[in-house]
Here is the input.
Amino acid sequence: GICPVSIAFFAVINICLLLSNGSLFAQNKGKVYENFGLCVSSSISANRFGVIYAPSLFYKSKRNLFAAGVKIQKQKPHFCGFQAMYEYTILDGNSGDCYLNWLELYAFAHAAYYNAAVLSATARNEEQTENPGFTVNLDNKKFTAVDAYAGFGLRVKFLKNFRWFSSIGIGGYDVLNAPKGMYYNTHGVGMLMRTGISFQFNRINRTHF
Here is the structure.
């Protein structure tokens, strides 16, 4: 069935759209700004690598945000890959798009490359239970994989230059070096859920790039 979390999340997004005051599609004629910042997030997705932490650096220009960072796996904590993300702010309360000036709604596209990920403990135990004839030791097996997701998220402003964000998306993954004969699905479609905190530095005013 449909995940109740996703139903609730998209219900919140619909409420945000209803709060729009009609200036959503107004042309932004302001100056070009360059904004840099840092964020740290935790996520879980369909690849069954468990919780992934991701410190990132981002660059923001008007409603566009570009971010790049590294992946750190909670399972046996270690560096396990890289990620890149693009976000487009659909509603920005601070710009008059809705009546809640502390709220932002955005769409995102996320891509990641894993070069040293391990399966979560749950996935490893399931492999032993469902596939007793599989003899490869997965406790220290490092997987190479790629994934990509797209979806929507919310940002909530607090303190000065800080934002809490949460997002949910749909996409898929592909494990590139899985041993043959595994019960574990080496590619598939599923969801990404991500949350974290970001800090944006002061703006640097520029009239052109």
